[in-house]
Design goal:
This protein is α/β, with parallel strands linked by helices and 353 residues long. The chain has 2 domains: 157 residues, 2-Layer Sandwich (ornithine cyclodeaminase, domain 1), CATH 3.30.1780.10; 171 residues, Rossmann fold (3-Layer(aba) Sandwich), CATH 3.40.50.720. It has 13 helices and 16 strands. The strands form 2 sheets. Strands 1, 2, 3, 4, 5, 6, 7 and 16 form an 8-stranded mixed sheet that branches. Strands 10-9-8-11-12-15-13-14 form an 8-stranded parallel sheet. The chain is globular, with a radius of gyration of 22 Å. The structure holds nicotinamide-adenine-dinucleotide. The site of nicotinamide-adenine-dinucleotide has 25 residues, from helix 5.
Length: 353
């Protein structure tokens, strides 16, 4: 076999990805859109994720999310740690992910890469893709409850598809978090006017054309009265809004309703409480992206969007980042094996019997 058996893969750190220009929502949104269309064309393998929970109370867990993009001849997995107590216990991030990507001609791995970036970008990219079809076209004001990592990503994502956005109102649990959000994001989106809502959710949301809840809370923070006609709501966290929010929306759209309904966020709770049925959900996003169902149809309709994450979209975004990094010459080519085990000239010295 000789040289043919050599396996090399690219190692990509978060800094490599950032340096290669992968914090690019156009890149991520295009990858997400193509992945949804591939799913509709039956060109995706999408097995159940594997969940290992280490603490039922805190939900500390590591999940394994595999997927295959048949057209790209790529298979991969996200290995993602979710440790909610990290934030309070260590002042550290809750979520840490890596991706392994393999080609499916020989089945060799081609990349091992940092995955928190792709994972967090994916949430924003799906929200933005939904907004492209469902948000008011001339949205001016975006409101947030929650000002953490997801909120920051969502602001960049929404600004990408709605450049008309000019004001961002933000409320969080503490005024200090609001101030940090504004300090960091005003550097990234300098033409945006930022307003701190002083922990007042109503102040952040009541004039918003696009509403985003991205909190670690489990409470009905967003009230139906705060959602004005014609607005678009992207729900990111768990239970964050009163049931009347979804009930008053003309359209409820999910990334995958069959997945959403078995989880624990507001729509799932409503389903389990008998307050929402299958027929109340207008569509999954792929049907709208493919043009099989219309997006926004009138200036006054309120739209509710909830995505819980699809492994093949994660993989598609990671793959787009890998390709850009190769193009930009970023990352490190590492050798996994020079040849097969018994072809090594030194094997006689290395074996222990
Ligand atoms: N839908 C998805 O695909 C997806 C993916 C990743 C994360 N998430 C979820 O998104 C949520 C946010 O994640 P993150 O990484 O941004 O978290 P984070 O810890 O960085 O931020 C949480 C934010 O919630 C705010 N908050 C908490 N309680 C509040 C309250 N009572 N009132 C107002 N604000 C409150 C905090 O002030 C903070 O700004 C989490 O629930 C996470 O599990 C969803």
């Amino acid at each position: 076999m000789g040289d043919q058996a050599k396996i090399q893969f690219r190692f990509l750190s978060q800094e490599d990805l950032l340096r290669a220009g992968c914090l690019d929502f156009n890149l991520a949104i295009d990858a997400a859109e193509n992945a949804l269309l591939a799913f509709r064309a039956d060109e995706v393998l999408f097995p159940e994720k594997i969940v290992q929970i280490f603490n039922e109370e805190t939900q500390e867990r590591i999940n394994c999310l595999p997927a295959t993009l048949k057209k790209d001849k790529i298979s991969g997995m996200k290995w993602v740690s979710v440790f909610p107590p990290n934030v309070e216990r260590f002042g550290l991030q809750n979520l840490t992910a890596v991706f392994v990507i393999s080609e499916i001609e020989k089945g060799f791995p081609i990349a091992f890469m940092e995955g928190t970036l792709a994972s967090n970008i994916r949430v924003g990219a799906m929200g933005a893709l939904a907004a492209r079809h469902l948000a008011p076209p001339d949205a001016k004001v975006i409101g947030f409850i929650g000002s953490g990592e997801q909120a920051k990503m969502h602001l960049l994502a929404m600004k990408t598809v709605r450049p008309s956005l000019e004001e961002c109102r933000v409320s969080a649990k503490t005024t200090a978090e609001e101030a940090t959000f504004i300090e960091q994001m005003s550097q990234v989106v300098p033409d945006m006017r930022f307003v701190a809502a002083n922990t007042d959710g109503e102040r952040a949301m009541s004039e918003a054309d696009i509403l985003v809840t991205a909190t670690s809370a489990q409470a009905p923070l967003l009230k139906a009265d705060w959602m004005k006609p014609g607005s678009f709501y992207s729900h990111i966290g768990g239970w964050e809004d009163e049931y009347a929010v979804a009930k008053q929306c003309e359209k409820i759209v999910c990334d995958d309703w069959e997945t959403v309904k078995h989880r624990t966020q507001t729509l799932s709770r409503m389903y389990k409480d008998g307050e929402l049925t299958d027929s109340d959900v207008y569509a999954d996003l792929d049907a709208i992206v493919a043009g099989d169902k219309p997006g926004r149809e009138s200036p006054n309709e309120r739209v509710y969007f909830n995505a819980v994450g699809l492994s093949y979209v994660d993989l598609a975004i990671a793959l787009a980042m890998y390709r850009r990094s190769v193009q930009e010459g970023v990352g490190e080519e590492l050798t996994l094996q020079e040849t097969t085990i018994f072809e090594h000239a030194e094997i006689g010295d290395w074996v222990k019997i």
